[in-house]
Amino acid sequence: xxxxxxxxxxxxxxxxxxxxxxxxxxxxxxxxxxxxxxxxxxxxxxxxxxxxxxxxxxxxxxxxxxxxxxxxxxxxxxxxxxxxxxxxxxxxxxxxxxxxxxxxxxxxxxxxxxxxxxxxxxxxxxxxxxxxxxxxxxxxxxxxxxxxxxxxxxxxxxxxxxxxxxxxxxxxxxxxxxxxxxxxxxxxxxxxxxxxxxxxxxxxxxxxxxxxxxxxxxxxxxxxxxxxxxxxxxxxxxxxxxxxxxxxxxxxxxxxxxxxxxxxxxxxxxxxxxxxxxxxxxxxxxxxxxxxxxxxxxxxxxxxxxxxxxxxxxxxxxxxxxxxxxxxxxxxxxxxxxxxxxxxxxxxxxxxxxxxxxxxxxxxxxxxxxxxxxxxxxxxxxxxxxxxxxxxxxxxxxxxxxxxxxxxxxxxxxxxxxxxxxxxxxxxxxxxxxxxxxxxxxxxxxxxxxxxxxxxxxxxxxxxxxxxxxxxxxxxxxxxxxxxxxxxxxxxxxxxxxxxxxxxxxxxxxxxxxxxxxxxxxxxxx
Length: 526
What we know:
The protein is mostly helical. The protein has helices at residues 21-24, 34-37, 41-53, 63-70, 85-91, 102-121, 131-156, 178-195, 214-231, 243-256, 308-311, 332-336, 343-348, 388-391, 409-420, 425-440, 451-461, 468-473, 477-484, 509-514; strands at 4-8, 28-33, 285-289, 349-351, 372-374, 404-408.
């Protein structure tokens, strides 16, 4: 059986999440047979682009919004007439839609498949004397394979790890124990960290912005180490990377990457500081998925950020904030956790009353109105009150263009603080201080570093960035339940976390059926 992959017309170097602005404005034009395709470095580059391309599909509103709704950061939101599935994300019910997490699963395995296709064909390419280019492509592909595995594993627990393209006899493979998946992830990330050069692509206009770097790989190793060791009570990363090794990696990223903190937290987010926006190619973005609005309403293209419309104000633009569906309304408990002079508070959330915005929740048919919604990632209007994306000829649902930050340098500092805490307290304190000093624009709000302090700082610094729910999993079920359970407000805000799920989301029913019984549903979801 021949294997086909979708390839894309090329015009320039990789940049926007997968490729450059010019590249993303081209459409898929042909299907090519893998058996006779991989001959030149250009062919391999096209295969690499195909792997990166899957990243843009992650922002359709799947894991990012679902994990925020499931955490203590947000409620379900959306409209009063919308399907109740949005509330089920928030309340851990999942009774009416058994396939609601299918996109996360299928996107992850699409990325894994494309990465494996490329990796299995690298030896067929005539690299000439440029073996370093082959190593670079392998390192990027293996990083992306690790990323797609981690996206699925941190959401569903045990998954089916794949280090090769499956044959017809392997279509019904069972899930493997977590250590098998995380050993593959660790080996792939370690290869990337050890084989990529010291380049930093966060300079303005750099054509390679969006590509994997050594520094992203080192930071991602730390992220997977902390999650795996916490969620599974282990002391190392699946026997592949020790705590001492991962600490060395993260310290290298802190000290030698060339990344740093943007001086003003608000300048990271377009809706928070339009006039002083730092730009998406700023020094703090260690790795981000890039988007643009060049699709101009074409639903067959996937260049725009389709997530943003989900969290924007429901029922029409209001002030400088463009319209959307009103999903994932922000929990007032999160907003209340910030100190008054913490600049991250005003930069992260739209406070309708505080900003003198007359948001009529009933007229706008907003469900679970809390008075707060996302400022991070919120699309904006122009001076005439028109959504910028529409003023530029795009569709407000699919052509928003803000990048999705997967790893910021602030997160690198907080992971470094956590990993150094037991062996180098002074260094851990210094890393934490850098984050808090920026948040308060002062050195007078420093507090002694502890594990609890670091976890709370992660909650405040990284709110609405898709990390909170998974930080809760690694703290254990009692802490997770204490954080998520909610009995304040009327009944629409009642949330009871069910510890029998162990924090794992339900598997898509379609995948259980397709497995012919080799995959069974996660505990608590039968």
